[in-house]
Amino acid sequence: MIFELQVVFGLIALLGALSAALIRDSYGKLIALGILVSGVLPFIVDRGYLDVAIAAALIAPISTIFVLMAVRRAEP
Amino acid sequence: MIALYVVAAIAVFAAVRAILERNTGRRFPHANVLNFAVAGSLVLLLDHPITLVAAAAYFVGSTLEANAIASTYAGGVKR
Amino acid sequence: MLGELLHILAAAIISWILFVAVDIFFKLPETGGVVGATAIARDIEAGGGDLAGGTMMGNIVCSPDASAGTLLAACGVYVAGIPGGLAAATLVFIGNRICHDPGYAGTTGAILATFVIYGFTLVGFAASDFIAGMVIAILTIQGLSHTHASRLLGRLWRVRE
């Protein structure tokens, strides 16, 4: 990949990780986890591991739904 | 090649806006712009037929994720 | 360099008109398809926006509609021509069914966009211009200013009514 694009997508992944650590609101934390996954995925596709990319893209929302059950039980 | 730079610039802009936004309900549209930009950049990075399946799987997965988070945020029953 | 940028801008305007027309034709601003769409519309209205436009933006977030169809059709035409676009329409339909949506708007938008984009590739546009143009178009709706975008969509919706 071109160097500038590596910087851009790495920046997105780092921003997602930092904000997932710093944001207090639980829904904001889950959105930040989505940003983290979207920053990591272009690196997987760029190497040509398309099956890994499909599996990661399908597993990430399922894990988010599992975390949401815990959020719903803790909040009401 | 310019298309890839444009899409990457929009992706980082949308990520910064999504993180800096204070209201939870208004975070979702910014995150949606990020999903569009990343799904487009996946196809532009690697020109192979299965990349289309990967981009569609990523897009549908992230839309389902946003749907589930928004439904729980609304307080309704998750359908 | 400059010519390619102009092509991207023209593609952005074309795909903006295409997906807003299909979405408003299928009555997306009328009701929220799922509970989350109405919650997003409520928050946008609390920030000074319009309720009908906010509902349409919430529907775009919560299920793949004509905008997603246009983007994936552009990707399909870029990868494999017209068969790629029709395969993208099938994938959008499956995604719609996963997200509890009837799926007419997304599938119609994808099939329509496939032929429009293929027609423009014969004139001299590249399919990658349409991918970047679609991302710019969705940025103007969802990313810049929610208040102004929802007011514009609400005004278009009242014209259609």
Describe the structure.
The complex is a heterotrimer of chains A (76), B (79) and C (161). In chain A, helix 1 runs antiparallel to helix 2 (26-47) and helix 2 (26-47) packs antiparallel against helix 3. Chain A starts with a helix and ends with a helix. Chain A contains three helices and no strands. With 76 residues, chain A is mostly helical. Chain B has one domain. Chain B has helices at residues 2-20, 27-45, 49-74. Chain C is globular and about 45 Å long. Chain C has 161 residues and is mostly helical. In chain C, helix 1 (2-25) packs across helix 6 and helix 2 (35-46) packs across helix 3 (51-62). Chain C has one domain. Chains B and C meet through helix 1, helix 2 and helix 3 of B and helix 1, helix 2, helix 3, helix 4 and helix 6 of C.
Strand content of chain B: under 5%
Q: How many structural domains in the coordinates of chain A?
A: 1
**Percentage of helical residues of chain B?**
over 70%
The average pLDDT value of chain B, as a whole number, equals: 89
Question: What order do the helices and strands come in, and which of them pair?
Answer:
The complex is a heterotrimer of chains A (76), B (79) and C (161).
Chain A: H1 3-22, H2 26-47, H3 50-74
Helix pairs in contact in A: 1-2, 2-3
Chain B: H1 2-20, H2 27-45, H3 49-74
Chain C: H1 2-25, H2 35-46, H3 51-62, H4 66-98, H5 104-123, H6 127-142, H7 146-160
Summarize the structure.
The complex is a heterotrimer of chains A (76), B (79) and C (161). Chain A is built from 3 helices and no strands.
What are the defining features of this structure?
A: 76 residues, mainly alpha, 3 helices, 88% helix, B: mainly alpha
